[in-house]
Structures are given as C-alpha cells and as structure tokens.
Amino acid sequence: MAQSKKLAAGIIRNNREMADGRTIRYYDTADQTRTAPDQRPVEEQPAIGELRLDPLVNEWVAMASHRQGRIFLPPKELCPLCPTTGELLTEVPESDFEVVVFDNRSPSLRPPVGDWALPDLVGPDTDLGTAAGKCEVICFTADHGKSFKDLTPARVRVLLEAWIDRTDELSREPYIQHIAPFENRGEEIGVTLSHPHGQIYAYSYLPPRVEKMLAAANQYMESTGKVLFDEILAREIRDQERIIARNERWIAYVPYASRYPFEIHVAPLNPVADLTGLTDEDRDAFPAIALEVMNRLDGVFGIEMAYIAAWHQAPVRIGRDVLRLHWQITSVRRAPGKLKYLAGSESAMGAFIMDMRPEQSAAQLREVKL
Amino acid sequence: MAQSKKLAAGIIRNNREMADGRTIRYYDTADQTRTAPDQRPVEEQPAIGELRLDPLVNEWVAMASHRQGRIFLPPKELCPLCPTTGELLTEVPESDFEVVVFDNRSPSLRPPVGDWALPDLVGPDTDLGTAAGKCEVICFTADHGKSFKDLTPARVRVLLEAWIDRTDELSREPYIQHIAPFENRGEEIGVTLSHPHGQIYAYSYLPPRVEKMLAAANQYMESTGKVLFDEILAREIRDQERIIARNERWIAYVPYASRYPFEIHVAPLNPVADLTGLTDEDRDAFPAIALEVMNRLDGVFGIEMAYIAAWHQAPVRIGRDVLRLHWQITSVRRAPGKLKYLAGSESAMGAFIMDMRPEQSAAQLREVKL
Q1: Helices (runs of H) and strands (runs of E) counted in chain B
Q2: Galactose-1-phosphate uridyl transferase C-terminal domain location, by residue (chains A, B) (predicted)?
C-alpha cells in the first residue's frame, strides 16, 4: 500500500493505518503531510457476516446483524466523521481534512479470509456463510453543517478523484465484482450520521439491479448491435423536454420512465464503462453540473431534499462493453410534507407506480432560479 | 355481472353499481339484501395513466399522476371507507357491512378501452401509453378502529372468500396477467387511510418480482425436475428453527434469506398455484394461522407494526405448474423507534442488507405470549 500517491489534477493521496488496523486515505489539493496517529484504544472487529441465497428470486442477501447497535444521529460534538479536535477522538485523526475515505467500522461486507469463490446459484440448499466485499466511508468535508451542494467546485473535483481512485484500487481485488459509490442524505431515508458523507460498497457478487441492467444491455446488443445506454441517451437528447442541465461534457435529465417523484440521471456525453474511464476534460467539467443538479433539487421546494445519489458503473470484470457510467439521484420527496413510499405494489411485486409525470418533475427542476 | 352469487361456506356476494359506474361487492355470511343506493353526485373519472418501459432494466413503470391529490389520513368522521351513516356519504352506501370490495376511485391501473396488447420489450423507443389493469379496494370490517388481527375467525374466512372470488373473476379478463391482493398497514409506510382495508392490483403485465420468481422456478425445474417452492418449504420444515406457527393445513416461517427485520411467509402444506386452488379444508384452517401470525407480529414490541401483507400467486396464464401460492408479510420495524430503510445498496443496487438474523427474528416471534 503506497503511503503517498499523486493522482490527477495535482491531488495527493496519503494513506494511514488506524488504531484497529483499518486504513484511512486523505485526498488533498496541497502536499500536506498527514501524520496524526489514531489515539483510540483498539477495539475488536465485528466478524464477517453471512451471505444467503434468496432462492425465490435467485438473489444474494447479506446478513450484517452486528449493525443493529449503530450510533444514531449524534450531535455535532459527538460526530465520528468530524476531524479530531480537543477531547473527542473521531474516525479522522487529523484536525482538518479535505476528503477522506476510511474502511467502515461496521461493514456489511468484509474482505474474505483465504480462498473465496461464489458458488453457482443452485436453489434452497445453497449455504455460503461469508458476506465478502468491502465497505468504505467517504467524507466530503470537515464541515459538519454543510451539504454536497455547498461544496466548492474544487472540492467536488477532489471528491470525484477519490471516487475514481477507490474504483481503481478496489477493481484490483480478485474477490470484488462490482463497485458502487453512493450518498444517502436525509433522516427520511434513514441516514444515521448527518455529517456530509457517502459510502463505497464493493460487492463480491453482482447486485440484482446491476444484473438486470446487464441482462437488458446484452439482450439489446444481441438484437440491435447497439449499446442500450447510448440509445437511451440519444432519445433523451431527441426528446429534450426532460433535460434539466448540460455542459460541454455532461448531461442531466429526468429519465423517461423514472420511478421517483424526483429522479435525475447525470451521464458523460462521451460514454465510458466506469469512473476510471473519464478523461481529464470530463473530470474537470463534472463539478459544475453536479453542483447545478443538487442546487436545482434543493430549490424545488426550498428545503433540503432526502435523496440517494448512486454511481452506476459497469461491473469490474464483465459487461464492460455494454454498460455505461451514470450517476442516478432519486428523491422520495413528492411535496413538502409528503413522501413516496414503496408499499405493496413496489415492495412486494417490484411494480413501480409513479404519482407524477417525469416531464412535470423536469419542468419543476428547470424552473428553479439558481 | 351476477347481482347475487353463492360462494363457499355459505357466503353470499351481492354486486351493486356505484353512482359513477364503479362496482361495489358485498360479501356476507347471512343472506342480507344490499340495496342502499349511492346518493353521491357523479364525478368525473380520472383518465387512464401511462405505462412506460424503463429500458435500463426492461421493466414497466405505471404513471398515475392523478393520484397526487389523494385524501391523507382523514379523521374517522370523514373516512371514505366507513359505512354511510348520517350526513357523510362514503364509498359504501350501506349502513353496515361485513367485507366489501369496490373499484378504486383513483386507480393506478384501469381496464383498457378497445383492443389492447402489451408490446414486446424492445428498448428506449418503446411507447405504450396505457396503464391497463384493475385496482380494487377491500374493506375488512365496518369498524374503523380495528385491525386485521382483531377480526373474528369467521370474518377472516369471509375475507379469504372475497380474495378468492376476486382472483377468480379477474382471472377471466383477457387483459389481466397477474393478480396481487395485499394490505399496507401503518403511517410509517405511507398508508393514507387508517380504516382496515387492503387492495387488489390486477396487472396487465408481469410485475418484475413475479417475473424473477418465474425465471428462478423455471430454471430450477429445468435443472432438477422439481418445483422450487416445494423444496424451499421442505428445507424450512427440515431446519425447523425459523418456523413460527403451523396447523394441519398451513405453515408460517421466517424465510432463510429474509430481507426485512420481520418477514413471515405463510403457505398451505398442500401446494396450489393460486387462491382459487385452496380446498375447503385449507380455507377453513386459514383464519387461525393468519390471526396467530398477525398477533405474534404485534406482540414482539407490544406496538402496532407497520407491515405489507401480500399474496403471491402464480400468474393467470403462465408458470402455473412451477409457482406456488404464499402470503408474504414484511415489516420495516426493527425496534421500537427504529425502522429499516431501503437506501443506497437496496434501492439503487437492489442488494439487500439485513441487520438481523432471521433465526433471531423467528425466536422473537415464537416467544410472544398470545
């Protein structure tokens, strides 16, 4: 593990070991030294969870029962994602930071010990026992009270480089099949720490939605010889009416068949399989559209919107010619004081009912004065 | 449409037309006449919604934008599901009832006008425009303050017969492919009317989760010659530790790979494709296990649990030899004051993380003193 590494755009990564053996990575724009030691007592790591096959639908479910006792919405003075200042020893030993990524203290998925392979899906007698993978936490800023949308463009650029670096490194682990950086925001969707941060889940199996995207893309390639996502983007550009922002390298739109009152997809105009494929020009043009989209979202009702913002990438080893990078932002907020819930049709049947036309939602997002 | 029909167990169905042309069906244990007219002014029916293909995953999404204005948690004296007494003219013209089923006033899916066929799924240029199907509301009792678990066994028997009758009739409609009776309970999951009731969704397409269950069952049949669900049930019976209730005709268990803190599947020991296949003995033995399961669920924390209770049936026209009827109850409540939320991993990736071992949840349900 390199202690210090130069990334693109003059960004430097410094790795440090935490007291319990986990790694913390500092991503900085200046060549800071990051040497503050983690002074906390060593605590025992939770055991690796189980991965169980749900045979009814041939999908893996990770069991992480050690997560029941997680800390819930601590006040700022007890926030474990703030820098260490004064008495409180947090997850970040330094007294300030730009962007940091550290291994999750209560991970749903953990690196496997020894040889590890996923069995074929074979029905109700499949026992596996090991939820292999890796979960990391990414803090966007040391400032507890900020949101993604308040970050400077320069900071979003560092954040993007950190996501790229993590995708690059995690892709090299032989047990990892898929990497998903995402941010959950808002108590309405169960966020337990309000400090601006995201997570990176690296799965040892294809997540069911990715598997389904891959199947659709493969089927489309076989029947038309074209890449599905490129055609989807072409239709959005042709239709125009659901586009909410664009610049020379990126486009943001409410998809034709969105599932949430507010759903936005952000994609590079020159398609790539994953974050590591973005050119320097793509990377430099991302902060502007990302900040515009997030400000439009919070502007619709003038309140902080609960959302999930997730990067969809091609899996690490397969489907790289047919799947495309895009950033999906979904909000369950349909009006001030009203949320969309996933009830019988969505949850039990998987059949989504949308209460709002995507064109209406796109118009509301476009009308926001920035 | 038969005005009056004798069903099993001495239950009688009486159909009446509502003021706006919708149908209400009274299910009664005595031979009541149900003649009270709907005295409300005729109001315009909302137009049929759109069905849009989400090409990323090849799934249909129904657009029902007219539903935004639905009434939200009205007090008892304004409840549209109570019987009509005094001034308030409700959805049910009679002054009392046992079980009623009526066409939903704000349906997500509506019967199509004229010829209607689902196109093959073909990618981003698929336009359809018509969310065909049918949505009905089923009231379990005239008593606004009751819950499913407070019903008498005799009333649950009527309710079951109503579900069976609706499955039977809706199966005859050529545009209907799948029928899902379900109940949503609890403000935590967005229930807008607290009167004890459920819904019946009849889809003109296979809901995505049903499609996935069908694919898994077909694959299992091809590779083993066995019915997947029967083998799942056999494993649950062999493992024993997740079974929470059983009688001579039914069994209830927390599935091996459950996805929610409390998830219970209830299945007949003699497998059938759908509700209409249940024998008289199965039907008569259902109320006892249904009430036991619901009382165990509310007993775990001594509070009313939010839940979704959905009947999984074989589709109307396909997969009838490989899919089996079962009743799935899921609750997002993981502790008093704590809910499980579907965030980044579950919502964006479809990858479920369970915070609790199913065996633990089964033990808690078994330990409830009834």
Answers
A1: 6, 17
A2: 218-368
What pairing do the DSSP bridges indicate for beta strands B307-312 and B178-185?
Answer: antiparallel
Return the pLDDT at B125: 84
Q: Is the pLDDT of residue A69 over 80?
A: no
pLDDT at B1 over 60: no
Mean pLDDT computed over every residue of chain B: 93
pLDDT confidence of residue A86: 81
> In this predicted complex, what is the ipTM?
0.95
pLDDT band of residue A192 (cuts 50, 70, 90) is confident
Residue B332 has pLDDT above 70, yes or no: yes
Q: Does B335 touch chain A (CB under 8 A)?
A: yes
**Are the C-beta atoms of residues A164 and A272 closer than 8 Å to each other?**
no
B197-253 pLDDT per residue, tens: 999 999 999 999 999 999 999 999 999 999 999 999 999 999 999 999 999 999 999
What is the CATH architecture of A4-206?
Answer: 2-Layer Sandwich (3.30)
A-B C-beta contacts closer than 8 Å: 256
Are the Cβ atoms of A52 and B256 closer than 8 angstroms?
A: yes
- What pLDDT, on the 0 to 100 scale, is given for residue A29? 96
Across the range A321-332, mean pLDDT stands at 97
Q: A206-244 pLDDT, tens per residue?
A: 999 999 999 999 999 999 999 999 999 999 999 999 999
Q: Thinking of the domain B4-205, which architecture would CATH place it in?
A: 2-Layer Sandwich (3.30)
Separation of CA B255 from chain center = 19
Active-site residue flag, A66: no
A263 Cα to chain B: minimum distance (Å): 11
CATH of domain B210-367: 3.30.428.10
Own/partner pairs, B152-158, CB within 8 angstroms, 24+ separation: B153/B287, B153/B288, B153/B291, B154/B29, B154/B287, B155/B98, B155/B99, B156/B286, B156/B287, B156/B290, B156/B291, B157/B9, B157/B11, B157/B283, B157/B284, B157/B286, B157/B287, B158/B11, B158/B27, B158/B28, B158/B29, B158/B98, B158/B99
B 47-106 residues with CB < 8 A to A: 50, 52-65, 67-68, 72
The residue ranges of every structural domain in chain A are 4-206, 210-367
pLDDT mean over B44-71: 84
Q: Return the HEC string of chain A.
A: CCCEEECHHHCEEEEEECCCCCEEEEEECCCCCCCCCCCCCCCCCCCCCEEEEECCCCEEEEECHHHHHCCCCCCHHHCCCCECECCECCCECCCCCCEEEEECCCCCCECCCCCCCCCCCCCCCCECCCCEEEEEEEECCCCCCCCHHHCCHHHHHHHHHHHHHHHHHHHCCCCCCEEEEEEEECHHHCCCCCCCEEEEEEECCCCHHHHHHHHHHHHHHHHHCCCHHHHHHHHHHHHCCCEEEECCCEEEECCCCCCCCEEEEEEECCCCCCHHHCCHHHHHHHHHHHHHHHHHHHHCCCCCCCEEEEEECCCCCCCCCCCCCEEEEEECEEECCEECCCCHHHHHHCCEEECCCHHHHHHHHHHCCC
Any idea which residue has 């009814």 for tokens? A56
Q: Are B308 and A203 in contact (CB < 8 Å)? A: no
Quickly state the pLDDT bin for B87 (edges 50, 70, 90): confident
Report the percentage of chain B scoring pLDDT > 70.
Answer: 98
